[in-house]
Amino acid sequence: MRLFSRSSVLLGSAASALFFSPVSAQASSDPEMVALRREMQSMRSEIHRLQSRVAKYEQTSPVSETPHKHVPRHLRVAGADEPQPVFNEPAPVHTGPRTLAESRVAVPEGPAMSWKDFKAASSKEESVHVGGIQIGFPNGRPTIASDDKAYAFSIGLLAQEDFGGFMGVSPSRAGGNFNNFTQNARRLRLYFSWRYKDWVVNVTPDFGSSTFDGSASLFEANVNYTGLRHTTLTIGYFQPRMEEESAERSGAFEFLERPAIVDLVRNIAGGVGRFSVGGEHYEKRWLVAGYFTGQKYGDRSKDNTITDSQTGAVVRAVGRPYVTKDIDVFAGVGATAAFKVNNGSKGRRYTASDNTNIPLGETSLLTSGVLSNVSQIWAAGPQLALRWKRFLLKSEYYHIGVQQGASVEAPSVLRSFGFDGWYVAANYTLLGNPRAYNEKIGAFTTPGVVYDFDPAHNHWGALELSGRWSVTNLRDGETGNQQTTWEGGLNWYPNRHFRFMLDYQRFIISRDPNTKATVNLFGTTGNAVVGRVQAAF
């Protein structure tokens, strides 16, 4: 308060010193001096009015022209209904309500952000600035960046721990390995990301496993350029995605895993850790992507006899022909091809095989059998989805074609094989914002948590219920068999970073017709119940 009164007195004194002294030195009859005196008088009057306002604010009488005179001041006590000062007040924690965009569950995998988008995302988060360095947590991911965001380093996480088992698997004789209760660290990925403006390097080791945990591998190691509008160009070990289910990202699946047909198709020329050169571009209503691909990371360490590595391609084009607030129609197509497969000591061989979509280390009973002298493999099919308010229905169908070349034993015989598979999945969001289309990845992904879990305030996070029917038929002539699965799932999201899943599955697998087979001689049926705990940053 004293600062205001001192400032006003100094203001008046300075004005007097500036204008009055020079004027008194001039002749009083000078017309210019007369006009200047009038202007000075007007300014002095305005200064007195300002001093009166300051004095009123301080509950004192107007300040006299004698600046050193003591003026008594009185402390005014704030009323009970007025805001009171609070010292050492903790910073408020923002847990809701969130907007539709802010509520989406965190998914660590995604297209590399452009420099422009990264600066926008970082500016919205609380951060600490130290000597030209900014330290913050955009989307919950620890990030160190320069103040202009040109240089940045961040660490992300996806941790998935599965536990459960199988029941009623029959027949028991030669039925394969199906544990009553076991555990598996499905995905334990650390996402390391380095940025210089629109250039981004991603390196992601994975300490989990789709079958048995206990060994480390590489999920990705690539260089990305994001300087073109809505475009990401990539080179290195990457996972090119041609299916809607894969485009969702593994941290956003409705169920524990993809349907078997999607797993088989994506691994023809894509899959985790595949050398890729290409990119994708998105707009509000459509997305296109294309990649030239090579071998997978670790192929030659698994088979050091490979003398000619695989080459292939992956393409995808999707769109939204009709969109309203409550309705979203999605349609697209995906295709992949291996122009040639790895050539090792046993020649160019290919076997399509998968488990029951429950990653607990069970025996893979679905198989095409070993196909030798393979010249090329391809797959293609449509992708469809419909969202109506909180309900989401989606489906994909793929046909796989395998072309055999001539062999030494049969130089004139060229044979082709055809396999098929599809799934239909339905999802309904019980609590929170429903799943919605993400234009940047061309897929429907994650519900939204409006309020974090807080029972005391009747906040329960997000909850969704899902069901899926899938069929994969690898039978062609005397080779291969078929697998059918029925699944139900319940997913609870207490906040944007944690998820608890519970899946039930009924599977039916026809017998393996291979006379040399040692398991699944009569066909196998069974049930599985599996839970998952997930953390994502």
UniProtKB/TrEMBL annotation:
Signal peptide: 1-25
Keyword Membrane: no
Alphabetized UniProt keyword annotations: Coiled coil, Signal
Coiled-coil regions listed in the entry: 33-60
Pfam families: Porin_O_P
Domain of life: Bacteria
Record protein name field: Porin
Taxonomic path: Bacteria, Pseudomonadati, Pseudomonadota, Alphaproteobacteria, Acetobacterales
